[in-house]
Amino acid sequence: MFRYDPHLQFTSKPDKPDAVLAMKMQELIGGQFGEMTVMMQYLFQGFNCRMPGKYKDMIMDIGTEEIGHVEMLSTMVARLLEGAPAETTEKAVAANPVLGAIIGGMNPQHAIIGGGGALPFNSQGIPWQAGYIVASGNLLADFRSNVSAEAQSRLQTSRIYGMTDDPGVKAMLQFNLARDTFHQQQWLLGIQNLIDDGLSDSPLEDSRSAEEDKVHDHTFWSFRTEPSRAAEGRWASGPALVGDQQIQYLPEPAALTDDDGLLPPPDPELFATYDGDQGPGAPGTAGGAAATGAKTVAGKIKDALT
Amino acid sequence: MFRYDPHLQFTSKPDKPDAVLAMKMQELIGGQFGEMTVMMQYLFQGFNCRMPGKYKDMIMDIGTEEIGHVEMLSTMVARLLEGAPAETTEKAVAANPVLGAIIGGMNPQHAIIGGGGALPFNSQGIPWQAGYIVASGNLLADFRSNVSAEAQSRLQTSRIYGMTDDPGVKAMLQFNLARDTFHQQQWLLGIQNLIDDGLSDSPLEDSRSAEEDKVHDHTFWSFRTEPSRAAEGRWASGPALVGDQQIQYLPEPAALTDDDGLLPPPDPELFATYDGDQGPGAPGTAGGAAATGAKTVAGKIKDALT
Amino acid sequence: MFRYDPHLQFTSKPDKPDAVLAMKMQELIGGQFGEMTVMMQYLFQGFNCRMPGKYKDMIMDIGTEEIGHVEMLSTMVARLLEGAPAETTEKAVAANPVLGAIIGGMNPQHAIIGGGGALPFNSQGIPWQAGYIVASGNLLADFRSNVSAEAQSRLQTSRIYGMTDDPGVKAMLQFNLARDTFHQQQWLLGIQNLIDDGLSDSPLEDSRSAEEDKVHDHTFWSFRTEPSRAAEGRWASGPALVGDQQIQYLPEPAALTDDDGLLPPPDPELFATYDGDQGPGAPGTAGGAAATGAKTVAGKIKDALT
Amino acid sequence: MFRYDPHLQFTSKPDKPDAVLAMKMQELIGGQFGEMTVMMQYLFQGFNCRMPGKYKDMIMDIGTEEIGHVEMLSTMVARLLEGAPAETTEKAVAANPVLGAIIGGMNPQHAIIGGGGALPFNSQGIPWQAGYIVASGNLLADFRSNVSAEAQSRLQTSRIYGMTDDPGVKAMLQFNLARDTFHQQQWLLGIQNLIDDGLSDSPLEDSRSAEEDKVHDHTFWSFRTEPSRAAEGRWASGPALVGDQQIQYLPEPAALTDDDGLLPPPDPELFATYDGDQGPGAPGTAGGAAATGAKTVAGKIKDALT
Amino acid sequence: MFRYDPHLQFTSKPDKPDAVLAMKMQELIGGQFGEMTVMMQYLFQGFNCRMPGKYKDMIMDIGTEEIGHVEMLSTMVARLLEGAPAETTEKAVAANPVLGAIIGGMNPQHAIIGGGGALPFNSQGIPWQAGYIVASGNLLADFRSNVSAEAQSRLQTSRIYGMTDDPGVKAMLQFNLARDTFHQQQWLLGIQNLIDDGLSDSPLEDSRSAEEDKVHDHTFWSFRTEPSRAAEGRWASGPALVGDQQIQYLPEPAALTDDDGLLPPPDPELFATYDGDQGPGAPGTAGGAAATGAKTVAGKIKDALT
Amino acid sequence: MFRYDPHLQFTSKPDKPDAVLAMKMQELIGGQFGEMTVMMQYLFQGFNCRMPGKYKDMIMDIGTEEIGHVEMLSTMVARLLEGAPAETTEKAVAANPVLGAIIGGMNPQHAIIGGGGALPFNSQGIPWQAGYIVASGNLLADFRSNVSAEAQSRLQTSRIYGMTDDPGVKAMLQFNLARDTFHQQQWLLGIQNLIDDGLSDSPLEDSRSAEEDKVHDHTFWSFRTEPSRAAEGRWASGPALVGDQQIQYLPEPAALTDDDGLLPPPDPELFATYDGDQGPGAPGTAGGAAATGAKTVAGKIKDALT
Description:
extended
């Protein structure tokens, strides 16, 4: 359950409005790595966390902070939109020709849809969507995703920082840069803590590691038709990060199989184009292994029930 | 420019078809972290890479490998669909009642749209989309995203591995697990290489670090109304990962501002609800700073042109 | 800024797991009218509200409550997924044939993506997206949307209520039904308050009412080729809700114009198919009114600058 | 079955082209509340209506009218695009520098994709999608959604009305404002009719009202950490709209439960991070209630079949 | 403007309900090639058609027919859903265990969202979206898209036809197959008519054909690392369809350039990773050709205005 | 499996940067008919092709070529973005006022997200999505879709060609026009080959042609309320393309049925609005044919198992 403290976490006041910048800052609200993404990603990771204690509490703490970041950025965008040109375009341009550039650069949806307020969209007006986030229940994998989100988010913040001279905007973005720096660390330290606590064996996602194909987990494959300078990287030689194997570099590797991907004859009821070279296909129920498998199970049902 | 070697990288042959498993394996093709994601993510990172040499070559090598992984998984799905029930449902169930479960669990689009072939969709039939990927031009940030994608992809592979007993499927998934293990390492070693080569100052995205707010880049904020066990984590104390500050834990922190987010009077032409308490709003051109700023620029145009 | 109170608003405990119900309940989290919708809709309406005081506070109060509802429903879904079949399908079906139905009906993404936790998706696995919500700045229009969202949400809750006998689930849904009942009232009373406070002239969105076409704002048009029983409804006769006109019913109405939608000759550079009947089209700059209008403005720029 | 009357419902002729306005008007065609939304929403509500007679006829009448509105607006957009700059940008700007602003503000897809015609997209080029609409079969809930759609649509029309001085465009928008005014009334009167006809007990969606939690259907909860002025609204006191209870205002409410959302041990096959504090988790088939429930059913199958 | 004739074009009555089939038939309503696609595609092509006369009338005629097809299919789906299991799942399965398969296979959104009616979604519950359609203004290109849509739609209809034995459903699908056959012809004949009327020079989209690279418009490139049997096809030899050149087959072709895609030094303000090998990059305004180009234009503005 | 040849297929070098053109060219990368579409469409058609030999090889050859086209266009876009204005907007405009137009017209995501590189998006910043493509297994239907994609793609290329004077860009687009011309032919010749090889009976998709309704497969229906000039087209008279029937033109056709689409009484558990005129509805299990059908099957299970 949540509570609302009616102050912003940090001042979000531009010195003067700038409708073009408002459009750009939408990326930090509703973009792939905007605040809505980290907010929803952390909240769902927290809701789904299996362990009461420091991990769940930490995730919920930062998830709650991020709701407030959406608030800060939305407030900033709404204030940047003050006095944005929403009236008759031609009249406006006549009164002040340079407005043409602003009109070209601003997002008219800020006026049409939002009435001068922030939108849950990115800088191109694309609605935020939950396909951006992940909450897998596996904290190592999710903390990796969280580091990534904070790094990309910080980079975008840094780029937008260079697009304005407004001291009020810059002050808030300096705060955001700082939080993104800390949050990157937080998730990296979280990974370290998972290992220290014995909840992960390595810094890699390595579930079912005993079953993985050990021949192919330490080889770099180069698919280049000419010599590849990829061979010069640390990823192409030296000890692997886990286990005691040496990384191997494979130039122009042959396929590991002569399987050419030939598909079986199609079900004639599906009208896939087929020349009959492999003999006739059979409709679903008659010949397919799904049916075959099912028949086996049917026997087991019979056994179980009779 | 690309070439096609008409063999699969690794054998992709199930021992017998299984339409329900085919549906689940679509997640590994067209899901958020499926092979289409890593393929397109790495190709775009490679196309946009600014440095000829080992980094660009490495990225293109793995991007090219991933096209082949889409091929392997698509082939596997098409083979798993052999004999899948596509004909009259009732007739099928009458002939073999257990088919009902298979029919319930399979994706009918495999028949209706794909004619028994793989689809560029996830396990719920949602088309893959480029909003899943990132290619920012900043290799440190992108390698972080790549580690994340490989970790999540491996985790999903591992989960699906547990959903089948088919030796052919398991053999291919063991190969995929191995490649995901190696690729996680590859990107982590890439980050190390960036630092070693002086292309990044730290393991964190830290552009414009001189301008970030140094007061707030090493504090953990707890927003919990009751004591939070987040204080027990490494992220809440100890040295920061960059710089020489100590991380601080802030329980029940007050807002850093008394800014309550009050917005300015709205443009009356937008019909936002407003009670006039802050005085009348002004239409876009008349009072807004956008116009003000524009006027200044207009003067500069005049100066420049006359 | 927000705070986290580490208790659920209301108990969210099923008596026993039910993976199929978990899938259905996702509609109440990430569907078009799920809790994510009302949460984000109210938060953005609150962030963008122009008036400090009872309206903004009310919107933020309910927005904050709804974050907790996402938490409640996510917890319920995760608990319903306990012991859901995620392992080898065939083995599971052999051990207990009826599991086939459950496997067919559950969403495998709950296992593959969510690791047994809730997802920010609807009941068909479609990610929530911000295109569902609206925050227009006009409280009358937005409160209308809020009533609609609560009514549809309550209806879906009521339908799902009938799909389970689980006392724990039913108890929570009874609470949700109650909140949706209250929230419908809350927004309707909010509309009444807007009128009482003089912030809206009528229960209709009526901005620029003085400029609207008064001939056509009180007529019901029937487009049926046979007599329409729509004439029997209150919407087809009687006094209009605003103003003092009587509603009129127009059967088989003629078009109000002889404009047949004929388009002008196309720009030849765009290769739209055209037979030249209206004379030659002209490329963009040469003849179009955009250029014409622009030329006028260009004159004004010149006037302004010289 | 439908018929086409080859005249527009109302004249859709701008006095002169304006490519920037054309882009903005796309919001009224393919936006969240554009004419495509009301057209498809009403048609599906009509197709799914269970009652022959005035309700179904009314819904189909207005749905049919809205197809014609899509036609009117598309025609207007195509005419506004006449002579829009589609040729070499630099050449155009050299010939008429002010074209730069137009080029910046127009949607190049109008040329590239549409060849100078209207698109089924919103003002940011986002394709219309059916996730915007609802047709629930419950007319009370759907009429609420319809009022909302007409109100938001009218507001957006009104905002765009202020962005042009073109008399032809304004005349058509005045017609549209009028229809949106009438249609708001139509749906509100429809709700009244449902109540008068005994098809709804109250103006609220209240299915299964006997089962809802009566303790929590008349309380306003304030989640603000400081006193909330929401207490001053009509929604916080006075009689409820249905039933005979008084609305109650609850400041700083405690959670209704001590349920802290702790989740059960995870299925080890899913590799959710877990420290074992609640004892070992069990794979899906072994311990989960899904299996338990299924076993019960299995017994019933046996009983039924033997 | 449209009219509604309150009869279906063709009877849409199943002999008995079948909720699983209802789910599959949604593909024919709201899928990529469902009736909503052809309906909206043809209507927008008609609205945007530049020539009054037989082409525009034909397009509008078929667009109007397709609205009625959406109606037919929606009616069929709603009737197929009669008596679909929407109540307590466990109770239902206890009463009739085989219902489990139906429950697994049906779309619960038909109950939860649609109240037993059709949805504007595909067979996986994905909302229809306008990104499926095209209306380019070029009738040759659009008629090609229309043939494609009718062919794919007919194929899907044919596949679903094989999934049912219901005589009522089959009768309607036989009608739909017939219309799709005719409509394929209609668009192919339309292409022929465009050529006969001199509105297109060839059956190919060939705008600006005089400017296209004549060396590369008649060569088949094989990118296979092993000999390709593609050389055996008619597309690899013989006369080209337009012009008088012979098609040439190019095995293992070399790149036409030694351009290796090296990108220029990045703008340092964007923090793209860069080792400085090509010298320092410059911020946007200082060195970029955009600025250079702009400066030139600036001179022209000055010339024009002074 | 794929290989990477580190040269572009054709030179992709603009003479000078142009950020606005870069934005427009994104349509050719990530738009509905961009290179990502043909690349993924052909690869999936190839992966799913049932016949080893010339068809599969041809499809894979062109699919592989298209990956290289994505590379060419991405390289072009990144080079066009050189020196694009990414820094402080106001400062830039002050230094060079005409930059305002460029800033208005460019896509800021090129800087914020892509760091000066190409994006997998269309010209409005909408991510590419797999809902654009089709791979049905039926080569005739798919080749129709491929012709359509090449024709639309060529048309868009041709339109953008007219928007630039840059010789480098034009040279590459001339190459692209040529390839699109050849590829249109390739797919048309492929259709001819399918017929010549006996893999298709006609140029139409005609699966289950024996079962289609022969009365309605050769009639043009006009739904116009006034005489339609559609009667003048070849599609309205003359011999059908298959079979020996003459096409018939039906003006103002009556419905083929008196089925008015009346739906059965709703399941009361779904709360669809209903007046009881058709008698009471029944809950899912009690009366529906789904249950009826299921009971029959249940008997068959019993028969099969006992």
